[in-house]
Amino acid sequence: MSGNIRGFGYLESLPPVTFRRLYQQPATALAIFRRMLPNLAKTIVTTLLYNETPVALGDLEALVRPESYRLACYAFSKLRRLHIITENNLDVSLDPVFKKNFRLALTGGHVWLLSGGDNRGDHHSFGVPCNTEDKKKITVQFLDDYATRQFEAILHYMVGTHNEVKPSKGVITLLTKGGLMERHGAGSVATITKNGFSFLLQDGNPQIWALLIQYLEMSEELGMEQTDVLHFLLMLGSLELGQAYSVNTLTETQKLMLADLRDYGVVYQRKSSSDRFYPTRLATTLTSESGGLRSASASMSSAMVKDAEEGKGFIILETNYRVYAYTDSPLQIAVLNLFVKLSTRYPNLVSGRISRRSIQEAIKMGITADQVIDYLSAHAHPQMRKSLVTLPPTVVDQIRLWQIEGERMRTTTGFLFKDFHSTQEFEEVAKYAEELGVLKWKKPARRCMFVTRHEQIADWLKRRASAQQQQLKKAAA
Amino acid sequence: MDTVDASVHYSQAIDEKPSLLVLILDTNPYAWSTLSATLPLERALASILIFLNAHLAFSHANRVAVIASHTKSARFLYPTTTTTTTTTAAAAASGSEDPLRDANKYRQFRIIEDQVQASFAELMNQTTAGELVDAKETMMAGALGLALGYVNRLVRVDDGGVLGAGAAGEVTSMNARILVISVSGDLAEQYVPVMNSIFAAQRKKIPIDICKVAGETVFLQQASDTTRGIYMQLEHPENLLQYLMMCFIPDTATRRHLVPPTQINVDFRAACFCHKNVVDIGFVCSICLSIFCTPPEGAICTTCNTKLDISALGNFGGNPAVVLTKKKKTKKLKQSKATSFSNEASATSTPGTPAS
């Protein structure tokens, strides 16, 4: 299961205090807005942004069509979890710190763009560019090469292939701490774990985030200020590729971080004493949305380094389960070897086939069928992309079926509701639970149902009960 | 956090495509000057820039374009194809001036702001007082044309796969929409080109949103109606920013989940081709569907040169002639209804007996 690797979503579990501190930087507010909210939630934020008075929750909910009730719930819960909105008796307003700094991000503190009550902040959260000419010109191409080399070195190290660049000690500690690799006994060579395999199958962006989140946790143990680390990571996403940035305005923690990030290929510094650093493409795409990255931006020529390097794709999958991969990269062969039984290797091509056993083995290692399919379609050969469906549907279905074979039973933790007074009451509660999306099972004959979460339903029942009592009172009076 | 949330069921990412926003700003100085008390142009521009930034903040891949619809011409404010010396110089100046100040702003936002402002200033400098005499119109048709062309170009790049019958699953074209911030009224002169643009947008499924700050135009209402865009007549122009941030920010995909701001009765009237009057009832060429307020001279359609048969019109416009028709007698009545109060009915058939 890939659930063991925490990605960007991990940030949601941070305590409110951390969020308050995070929002003090406009760049961070912008990055969180951009990266972590669904579009509907973004719309709600912009609606509230220039409203000085709180808005009633009902009014906001009325903006959303009744059919999309669930989406609205999702949007609101996201906003609440990120502490972007504060609620006071059904009145909703934006968190004041977030509001102020998000406005600052949008206006850039321009005097003429200011509107009521904003003051111009000198936050420099978008990175201070270095204006003096560098002695040696750093090109974008160079940065891309550098990022690829560093990051590939990590991946190569994980699958145990020989590579001229060895990752640094810090990286290896990070990998072992994060459970991606493990050492059996002191001094022995680290080997890749189940988590490590599913990590390999992810896209570039989630991979980098998984590493960085791990780094974030480790930095806490090392006594680094967590918010400082996060500020810096999120700021990196708003920097421009190919531009040098000054080190001088960074905090001590952030200067320390530079050395580590250099090892991951996220930033480039010629010497550790240099007064400037260059963000690489890995950094500048940090806060792009993971989904839009590969497909949409590809045409905008800002595709990920990895994709650019591999060309458009190299895997051909036939309906007879045979796989041909035009590659000589040990990394790609190693990844393919996770779920394909490779049989032949030529100078520029490996071939093999997908079989029930090879997929089952992959699943045992914690790789899901969807990960396999995603990987195959993401790296499909241009020839395959010419057809309407990239991968042969029979093979895709079969891979899924092979996975399901092992999952005959699924457990869900939750709560049983029973002993309803009337069928009508039961039906109403069941309907509400279904709308919320928490209903797992119900049996009207016995008036009981099973839900995954209970708090909101209990709350609703209470409110309904009190409403009914009031009605009764009114009727009596 | 113990509260219930439905997010568990949305573990798979909701597909959110990047979107392209083409903003058409009506820059007619004449119309803006009448608004100067409530909403001076500079403030409007500032609001619009914040709005553009907000749009860009939605997603890394979002794009914007700004087109000025001036009195006699329409042109791009952003992106400008010919990077004029002034814009680059301005950008360079602001860059080297104060790097610390530079760091206060997200780079993408700054580039757009600088360019829009520079090209806007240039546009205003080039406008002479002489041109403004009686210039109440705005080149909306041209601006819409530019916008559609731009959208087509950007979206087509992404659509390449579809055209080449490529992997349809992978292709994510951008959602595009056009937003018109309109201040001047009356577009009757440009009825035909505007309507053509509207239909082109409709075919391409590009919604045209209209933010009407002042004035009244029938055709822009129709534009938003046919393309399923949003039409908003601002009651308080000074709150332009709030309107923009609330109603016009969601992209086409998000709008499916939102209750659209209500649009009250659309005016569907057309303008005649001969005098550019907005007409309620007019004459339509039977061949090319051109509209005239009065039958064209010599009964020849000015658009397609067809000889029209005016005689068929009769005395249209005169008093309607009332032709009296004889009441037909109902020959046959159903049994149940035959027991009516009508004497005639009972005269022809008695209840219970078939009429034949």
TrEMBL record, chain A:
<keyword id="KW-0804">Transcription</keyword>
<comment type="similarity">
    <text>Belongs to the TFB2 family.</text>
</comment>
<comment type="function">
    <text>Component of the general transcription and DNA repair factor IIH (TFIIH) core complex, which is involved in general and transcription-coupled nucleotide excision repair (NER) of damaged DNA and, when complexed to TFIIK, in RNA transcription by RNA polymerase II. In NER, TFIIH acts by opening DNA around the lesion to allow the excision of the damaged oligonucleotide and its replacement by a new DNA fragment. In transcription, TFIIH has an essential role in transcription initiation.</text>
</comment>
<keyword id="KW-0539">Nucleus</keyword>
<dbReference type="GO" id="GO:0001671">
    <property type="term" value="F:ATPase activator activity"/>
</dbReference>
<comment type="function">
    <text>Component of the general transcription and DNA repair factor IIH (TFIIH) core complex which is involved in general and transcription-coupled nucleotide excision repair (NER) of damaged DNA.</text>
</comment>
<keyword id="KW-0227">DNA damage</keyword>
<dbReference type="GO" id="GO:0005675">
    <property type="term" value="C:transcription factor TFIIH holo complex"/>
</dbReference>
<dbReference type="Pfam" id="PF03849">
    <property type="entry name" value="Tfb2"/>
</dbReference>
<dbReference type="GO" id="GO:0006366">
    <property type="term" value="P:transcription by RNA polymerase II"/>
</dbReference>
<dbReference type="GO" id="GO:0006289">
    <property type="term" value="P:nucleotide-excision repair"/>
</dbReference>
<protein>
    <recommendedName>
        <fullName>RNA polymerase II transcription factor B subunit 2</fullName>
    </recommendedName>
</protein>
<keyword id="KW-0234">DNA repair</keyword>
<feature type="domain" description="Transcription factor Tfb2 C-terminal">
    <location>
        <begin position="397"/>
        <end position="462"/>
    </location>
</feature>
<dbReference type="GO" id="GO:0000439">
    <property type="term" value="C:transcription factor TFIIH core complex"/>
</dbReference>
<dbReference type="GO" id="GO:0003690">
    <property type="term" value="F:double-stranded DNA binding"/>
</dbReference>
<dbReference type="InterPro" id="IPR004598">
    <property type="entry name" value="TFIIH_p52/Tfb2"/>
</dbReference>
<dbReference type="Pfam" id="PF18307">
    <property type="entry name" value="Tfb2_C"/>
</dbReference>
<keyword id="KW-0805">Transcription regulation</keyword>
<dbReference type="InterPro" id="IPR040662">
    <property type="entry name" value="Tfb2_C"/>
</dbReference>
Automatic annotation (TrEMBL), chain B:
<keyword id="KW-0539">Nucleus</keyword>
<comment type="similarity">
    <text>Belongs to the TFB4 family.</text>
</comment>
<dbReference type="GO" id="GO:0005675">
    <property type="term" value="C:transcription factor TFIIH holo complex"/>
</dbReference>
<keyword id="KW-0863">Zinc-finger</keyword>
<keyword id="KW-0227">DNA damage</keyword>
<dbReference type="GO" id="GO:0006355">
    <property type="term" value="P:regulation of DNA-templated transcription"/>
</dbReference>
<dbReference type="InterPro" id="IPR036465">
    <property type="entry name" value="vWFA_dom_sf"/>
</dbReference>
<keyword id="KW-0805">Transcription regulation</keyword>
<keyword id="KW-0804">Transcription</keyword>
<feature type="region of interest" description="Disordered">
    <location>
        <begin position="331"/>
        <end position="356"/>
    </location>
</feature>
<dbReference type="InterPro" id="IPR004600">
    <property type="entry name" value="TFIIH_Tfb4/GTF2H3"/>
</dbReference>
<dbReference type="Pfam" id="PF03850">
    <property type="entry name" value="Tfb4"/>
</dbReference>
<dbReference type="GO" id="GO:0006289">
    <property type="term" value="P:nucleotide-excision repair"/>
</dbReference>
<keyword id="KW-0479">Metal-binding</keyword>
<keyword id="KW-0862">Zinc</keyword>
<keyword id="KW-0234">DNA repair</keyword>
<feature type="compositionally biased region" description="Polar residues">
    <location>
        <begin position="336"/>
        <end position="356"/>
    </location>
</feature>
<comment type="subunit">
    <text>Component of the 7-subunit TFIIH core complex composed of XPB/SSL2, XPD/RAD3, SSL1, TFB1, TFB2, TFB4 and TFB5, which is active in NER. The core complex associates with the 3-subunit CTD-kinase module TFIIK composed of CCL1, KIN28 and TFB3 to form the 10-subunit holoenzyme (holo-TFIIH) active in transcription.</text>
</comment>
<dbReference type="GO" id="GO:0008270">
    <property type="term" value="F:zinc ion binding"/>
</dbReference>
<dbReference type="GO" id="GO:0000439">
    <property type="term" value="C:transcription factor TFIIH core complex"/>
</dbReference>
<comment type="function">
    <text>Component of the general transcription and DNA repair factor IIH (TFIIH) core complex, which is involved in general and transcription-coupled nucleotide excision repair (NER) of damaged DNA and, when complexed to TFIIK, in RNA transcription by RNA polymerase II. In NER, TFIIH acts by opening DNA around the lesion to allow the excision of the damaged oligonucleotide and its replacement by a new DNA fragment. In transcription, TFIIH has an essential role in transcription initiation.</text>
</comment>
<protein>
    <recommendedName>
        <fullName>General transcription and DNA repair factor IIH subunit TFB4</fullName>
    </recommendedName>
</protein>
